[in-house]
Design a protein that fits this description.
By secondary structure, the chain is α/β, with parallel strands linked by helices. Helix content is about 30%, strand content about 20%. It has one domain: 4-Layer Sandwich (Metallo-beta-lactamase, Chain A), CATH 3.60.15. It has nine helices and twelve strands. It has a seven-stranded mixed beta sheet with strand order 1-2-3-4-5-6-7. β5 (about 90-95), α3 and β6 form a beta-alpha-beta unit. The longest helix is centred in the C-terminal third of the chain and has 18 residues, at about 270-290. Bound molecules: zinc ion (ZN).
């Protein structure tokens, strides 16, 4: 093995990286570690304080929704163990969308445990045709690469994992291949309908970004609004976040810890609708601002 770069030169390169305004996404990710916890019944939280990862015990293998940020896979494996499960039992990972901060563990789980990887069909196409839109090149690790999904999720898919049946919809907007899914969790208060919406960020709706990707009329913003409307009326008793900010994951966890015998703060029938309406209103305000047009 040969390397012509001195360690000093490498460190100075790394110092430059640390001055990057995006550096906090990649450096010292362990500061975002969250002790895993049971949300409700067979649904657990194994993500960090920024990007969610959910673990579902299907009764015949574990399913993860998302696989964390690139560079955070050791934290995810630790969280699965700490929750009382064995990462080798993760049979499926369903990815919310194809961005760098949600797919970090995909290749590791597939190679290490034979986990089957799922991704929305339009994002699988994005990986083939415009892989740079995944932002994987921003991961700050030249060893990170995209994965090949074992299954490409399509509109209306109803898929069974152990004793869990999930219904999928495509909700393009944040990416073309964002998925929404719905399934029943089983816990002490009986079956509760879970709802998941795979990507809310407006970063991919910005003027310059849309012009760059070939959408100078900003049609993607209308696509996003239509996706919100499509699943708005779904019955959801337990809204699972894509990032913690969506459902105040950690605030609810604090309330759960403060009053373990009280009502489960994650069971909230109004949250799904109110949050989707909030994003609709925020996007309408964003679209009517001349600065964004
Ligand atoms: Zn994203």
């Amino acid at each position: 093995m040969t390397s012509r770069e001195s360690y000093e030169a490498y460190l100075s390169r790394r110092e430059e990286l640390a001055r990057d305004r995006m550096a906090h996404y990649w450096l010292n990710q362990e500061s975002r570690y969250v002790h895993p916890f049971q949300i409700y019944g067979n649904v657990w939280y194994v993500g960090d304080s920024w990007v969610c990862v959910h673990l579902i015990d299907t009764g015949d293998g574990l399913l993860l929704i998302d696989s964390g940020n690139c560079g955070a896979t050791a934290m995810l494996v630790n969280a699965v163990w700490e929750a009382g499960f064995n990462p080798a039992d993760v049979k499926w990972i369903v990815h919310s969308h194809g961005h760098v901060d949600h797919i970090g563990g995909a290749n590791f789980f597939k190679r290490m445990y034979g986990t089957k990887l799922y991704l929305g069909e339009p994002d699988a196409r994005m990986y083939r045709e415009r892989p740079e839109l995944s932002f994987i090149q921003d991961s700050r690790n030249d060893c990170d690469i995209l994965f090949t999904p074992d299954y490409e999720i399509k509109e209306g898919d109803v898929l069974t994992f152990g004793n869990i049946t999930m219904t999928f919809y495509l909700v393009p907007g944040h990416t073309d291949g964002c998925i929404a899914c719905f399934f029943d969790a089983d816990g002490p208060e009986g079956k509760k309908r879970c709802g998941y919406y795979g990507g809310f960020g407006f970063n991919t709706l910005q003027k310059d970004f849309l012009i760059e990707i070939g959408d100078p009329e900003y049609r993607t913003r209308t696509v996003y609004l239509n996706s919100l409307a499509k699943v708005r009326e779904q019955k959801v008793e337990l809204f699972l976040g894509n990032h913690c900010v969506n459902n105040d994951t950690l605030g609810r966890r604090e309330r759960q810890l403060a009053d373990p015998e009280g009502p489960n703060p994650f069971l909230d029938e109004k949250l799904w609708g109110s949050y989707l309406d909030q994003k609709r209103d925020e996007l309408l305000a964003f679209m009517s601002d001349p600065a964004n047009n």
